[in-house]
Specification:
By secondary structure, the protein is of the alpha/beta class. Helix content is 44%, strand content 19%. It folds into three domains: 2-100, 2-Layer Sandwich (Gyrase A, domain 2), CATH 3.30.1360; 121-200 and 368-428, tRNA modification GTPase MnmE domain 2 (Four Helix Bundle (Hemerythrin (Met), subunit A)); 211-362, 3-Layer(aba) Sandwich (Rossmann fold). The protein has helices at residues 24-29, 82-94, 104-111, 117-128, 132-142, 145-169, 177-180, 183-199, 223-231, 274-289, 305-310, 345-360, 371-393, 397-415, 423-428; strands at 2-5, 12-20, 42-49, 52-62, 73-80, 98-99, 201-204, 211-216, 249-255, 258-264, 292-297, 317-321, 335-336, 367-370. Helix 4 packs antiparallel against helix 5 and helix 6 (145-169) packs antiparallel against helix 14. The radius of gyration is 29 Å and the shape is flat.
Length: 435
Amino acid sequence: MIFALATPVAQSAIGVFRVSGAGCCDVFNGALNKPISKHREVFLRDVFWNGVLVDRCSVVFYSGPNSYTGEDSIEVFCHGGLSVIKSLTGVFLELGFREAGPGEFSKIAFENGKLSLNEAEAVADLIHSEDVERSLLSSEAVAGKLSSIISKLGNEVDGLRVFIEGSIDFSDEDYDFILEGRVETRLMKIKSSLVDLIDSSLISTKKLSKNKVLFFGPPNTGKSSLFNRLLGFERALVSSVPGTTRDLIDSEMFYNSVNMELVDSAGIRDTSDSIEAEGVGLSNNEIKKSDLVLIVLDHNTEAYADNFKSMMAKKNHLVVFNKSDEKNPVDQYDCVVSAKSGKGVQQLKKMIFDSIQQNKNISKKTFIIRERHLVLFNAALSSLDACMEKISNEKDVDVAAEDLRLVRSSFDEFLGVKYPDELLGDIFKDFCIGK
């Protein structure tokens, strides 16, 4: 039997413990003022230990296999004081429960057939999602839609293997299994479906990438001041001396549930200072990595606008005029602001958000997939191509059946029907404790 705190270790209104394992309800009843047994009902119970009231908690019992893990499970909702959480942890340990490892609940759910391996991975991606769009894409996979698509493709592959193996086993019969089974057409359809799936998916990593916004332009135009104003606190050093920012400074900003990484860079100019020159070089390299570049100019640097815009090529960018409290711009700009007074800053935030959203085209994506999935899908595509070539040339048809077996094997590894021994450890080690 295992247990874990499913909420962060911090002072809060409530804390939630999760428990799983055969007989866990009977064991935990030993610490309650009244036993519980009914499935999926909320009970208000006092938790006692050594005759002392630990806390009054809400307790829910889930009878296996109708639970997240497929085993008997309990959820305990306690007050979120750190002393209460510590005391309840002690109660669970004294009762004989073991503290769960990272992702152990989801691993048990997978092993008990409650989740496919992809759905379990999607749970971790959902937890690590840093904006609404990505969490929605992860939710699609958690709900089983991606697993369902791959399962159907796998079943179609099995159906085609019947015709190919039939053409081998009954080669002396006057019956064209390949033609009658429309094998070539159906193979092309499977390949097309898999290619469409890859093209409509975002590739996930352990930590999903943020939306990077780079502050770029000449020195002393107020980039750092505007950077600090958008963040709402002093993160970058501000000075009237040109070249003060010599390295990249970054910080996070949330706007409309989207996480953005703001990066303040060194001002671009010819310089003999080797340290400052290195900072300028970093700024130029950072352009390629950014989702959006803010070219920040002021009344002293308007003449350089075209030069800086020419450095953008096709990079998504906005041209921003700063220090409007000192002087109005002569030319047209995407946004006019004053980092000193705050004028125009809210409009700039909205423009940054809108520009990133338009550039991402996330609405065209359907799922988030991992590098592991991409490797398996590409292996399946290679095997499909090999199979189609053999069928088309009417050569080595017996080996074509082996190609389809490899396709099915890739799909099975994606779903977790089969997997290398070390794979589960690699996947679930990145989960939160309590999930």
